[in-house]
């Protein structure tokens, strides 16, 4: 890892959600005080949604906060599998918060990749925080092992901030192409938080210990990190 990760262990998933929400609230407060705005890149999936709901209840000047997904499924924006829709629901209490999406309205993969790059080109500054989850195959964002676009997407020196990812095979629970922030863009942040529960701690340890030529995605991202890295885990 580019630096040593700080590990945080919690007794319950609720305790994890409460603690990480408090960290992100402080992050937003500090960013707004220093720069007048805050920008967070947030993972989708079930694990982080409770912490987002807690964060949304914080009395922040939400109109000065921009949120965007770390990745998105190429589905219409009103589809149940859409991460942007899930974030909007989780932050419903955050009056005035700005939410940027990575896809076009109908979810077309190629047009969405172009739209995501245009969006990010207009926001080149580091994220104030990135929140990542991790799959059982050690993927983060939508950087799936075996995807043909993975090597370029993991290049820490890549110039593209977002790309299309075609998981192979497609996950049966969400069989869609994806748009993902690249590792290079995820790493352009002031802090990186990995949020995992249950036996995914063992998946993370195995990934970090891997000696394979192609590092598992989570290991490749954490290896290249220069910002502070925090790993949050609960049973």
UniProtKB/TrEMBL annotation:
CDD domains: 6PGL (cd01400). The gene is pgl. Pathway: Carbohydrate degradation; pentose phosphate pathway; D-ribulose 5-phosphate from D-glucose 6-phosphate (oxidative stage): step 2/3. This is 6-phosphogluconolactonase. Pfam families: Glucosamine_iso. It catalyses: 6-phospho-D-glucono-1,5-lactone + H2O = 6-phospho-D-gluconate + H(+). GO terms for biological process: carbohydrate metabolic process; pentose-phosphate shunt. Hydrolysis of 6-phosphogluconolactone to 6-phosphogluconate. GO terms for molecular function: 6-phosphogluconolactonase activity. Belongs to the glucosamine/galactosamine-6-phosphate isomerase family. 6-phosphogluconolactonase subfamily. Gene3D superfamilies: 3.40.50.1360. The lineage of its organism: Bacteria, Pseudomonadati, Pseudomonadota, Gammaproteobacteria, Lysobacterales. Residues 12-223 form the Glucosamine/galactosamine-6-phosphate isomerase domain. It is an enzyme of class 3 (hydrolase). It comes from the Bacteria. Its EC number is 3.1.1.31.
